[in-house]
Amino acid sequence: MPMDRLGLKVLVLLVAYLLGSVPSALILSRLVAGVDIREIGDANMGARNVTRTLGWKPGVAVASVDVSKGALAVLLAQAFGLDLSWRIGAGYCVVLGHDFPLFAGLRGGQGMAATLGVLLALVPGETLLGLAIYGLLFLVTRHSDLSAGVGIGLVVFLMWRWDEPRLLLICMIGLILSIPAKTLLDRPRRLRVRGA
Questions:
Q1: Which of 52, 118, 141, 165 is the most buried (most CB within 10 A)?
Q2: What residue spans define the domains of the chain?
Q3: Within 13 Å and on the Cβ side, how many CA atoms surround 7?
Q4: What's residue 2's pLDDT?
Q5: In sequence order, which residues have a C-beta less than 8 Å from that of residue 109 and are 6 or more positions away?
């Protein structure tokens, strides 16, 4: 493999990480309310906490940016003609940047919206159906975590059922499992903030 091609691939991964590192929830919470979103509500730097503490309009803005940066990282790799493994790598790097952002002291969110963007770019059909089920269940139950779990489960099932490449299926399961792993990792800090 020519060195310039390898250099391009590494550059795409670096750009994906830096894109993920843009802390939209932190920026917006400071602009809208002059607060650090990691110090209020449930102390998570994500769209749900922004929605609960600052309102639905800032929450939608944060979710839109975070989903977009997830999709954009994968689409950037695709635009440079990188194969599936490198597009998956770009997806992992953007979520890594979101979870451990260079521009926010490595204290980021859980990666749900960024992961959704990655899924939308890699498996749009399955992801849109999963989102539809999430929306319907949420309207009925008003339980976001339950609805998201069922929606994500459907995405994985459809990926398997529709014979998506095994590498893609396994890597997306790993990416999805990083969300509860990051939640557990952040738990002590978030408990300290809420107990203060």
A1: 118
A2: 3-120+179-195
A3: 3
A4: 56
A5: 25, 44, 45, 46, 66, 98, 99, 182
